[in-house]
Amino acid sequence: MSNSRVRDDRPEAAQALDARLRERVAELHQPAGPEQQLGADAEARVLSRLQAEAPLLAASRKRVSQLRTTAAVLLLSAAAVLLYVRATRVDHSPTALPPQAARSVLPSQPACALPALADDALAGNHLALAGLGSLVLQPQSRVHVEHSSACELALRLESGTLAGDLHNLRPARLSIRTSQGEVIVTGTRFSVHSDGALEVLLESGVVDVQLRDGSALRLQPQSRLRHPGGAARAALEPLSRDDVQRLSGWLESPPVPAAVSGESDSTAQDPAPLPSNALLSDAETARRTHNHAAAREAYRAASRGGDEDAEVALLRWARMELELNAAPAALRLLNEHARRFKRGALGAEAGWLEVQVQRALGERERAAGAARRLLTRHPRTPQAAAARKLLDAP
User: Fold this and answer.
1) Which of 111, 162, 200, 304 is the most exposed place for a label (fewest CB within 10 A)?
2) Among 382, 380, 320, 373, which residue's Cα sits nearest to residue 349?
3) Gap between the Cα atoms of 320 and 336, Å rounded
């Protein structure tokens, strides 16, 4: 038998195309280098190369049918090899997927937005977290910053009380570390007290507490945790009205300027504060234009005094919160009014607001109790008449 090579009578263009097609299929069996990664676009690359060679088919008119058969067989072979490669080789390179596919696979995440803080950030008693809310440190308390980044703020509370009214920090978080454990906050209204024992008041939101004994607790809204320390177990209890008032008082305390040095500067003078009536006017203007954030700040500043304008500002602030369907916030302001203005001139107005707030909260029994107190304390006022009508209703 002759060992001579079988002669190929096809035109040179057809032979060249056949050789190129075989080379392309053979390349699929070789490991992919950094310049040619096998991935989701491998099939598109092979097909584009085959399509680029297709015009050469027109050069061979005598063997058209044979060339079509050869090309079809090679394409089927290439497809089979691609399926095999996809089943046995996974490309983990982030460049394997086109940008559109990558965006559909990887969901977008919000960026962390906590400000970077130095250790003396709480030299004063108020700390604003870049529009995410604020922290208030009570007098004689000691705290310092252990870690600060855009995604986590870790504070060490050595002693005293730290209260906060924070919006949603996610994906960032605030960690308050004490001698008895760590309180993890992602956005809520709360306080943490440490004096060897640990107390956490939680009015809204959810916080996680990790104690030194390894136990972990999740506090739900309107709850209080007390841990005396040592081997004693932590106790979870409902939040009382006194607890709510305590927390409100801490959060509403006026800011104290941070001390710059140990010596007082007799030449430095703080700018004279605006009178309460001017601040009240600013608050009313902001409320009418639906700028509620500015209205809150103006009401807060106007209500810090002890005069009649301050009392008016506090109750108008409560009225605005009630109109914005923020009944818990309105109730906190009414509790502050009861604490600061026990003999105020607007007791009847405050009493009727309490009736409305309790009804908005769904507390019909407490609303009826507030209406009865209003009748007793201010019987000859329009507010008492409205309360009487409410109590007489079926």
Assistant:
1) 111
2) 382
3) 16
Segments of the chain assigned E as strands? 126-128, 133-137, 142-148, 152-166, 173-177, 181-185, 189-194, 198-204, 207-211, 216-219, 223-227, 235-238
Contacts of 26 (CB under 8 A, 6+ apart): none
Higher pLDDT, 74 or 348: 348
Cα separation, 300 vs 287, whole angstroms: 13
CA distance 23 to 27: 6
Tokens of 393: 């209703």
What does the block give as tokens for 143?
């705290």
Evaluate the omega torsion of the peptide bond into residue 171 and state whether it is cis, within 30 degrees of 0.
yes
**Helices and strands counted in the chain (H then E):** 12, 12
Rg over CA atoms, the chain: 37
Beta bridge partners of 173: 152
Within the chain, all domains assigned CATH 1.25.40.10 are found at 276-392
91: CB partners within 8 A, 6+ apart: 37, 38, 39, 40
Task: Tell me the pLDDT tens digit for each residue of 258-283.
Answer: 443 334 444 444 444 556 677 888 88
Q: pTM to 2 decimals?
A: 0.44
CATH number attached to the domain at 276-392: 1.25.40.10
Residue 330 tokens read as: 């309105």
Label residues 212-236 b or e (16+ Cβ within 10 Å = b): eeeeebebeeebbbebebeeeebee
Ranges of CATH 2.60.120.1440 domains, the chain: 126-240
Give whole-number Cα distances, 267 to 245, 255, 264, 306, in Å: 39, 22, 9, 29
SS3 208: strand
Domain spanning 126-240: which CATH class is it, in words?
mainly beta
How many residues are present in the chain? 394
Three-state secondary structure call for residue 203: strand
What is residue 300's three-state secondary structure? Answer: helix
Please report the pLDDT score of residue 111 as a whole number: 82
List, as one string, the DSSP characters of 360-390: HTT-HHHHHHHHHHHHHH-TTSHHHHHHHHH
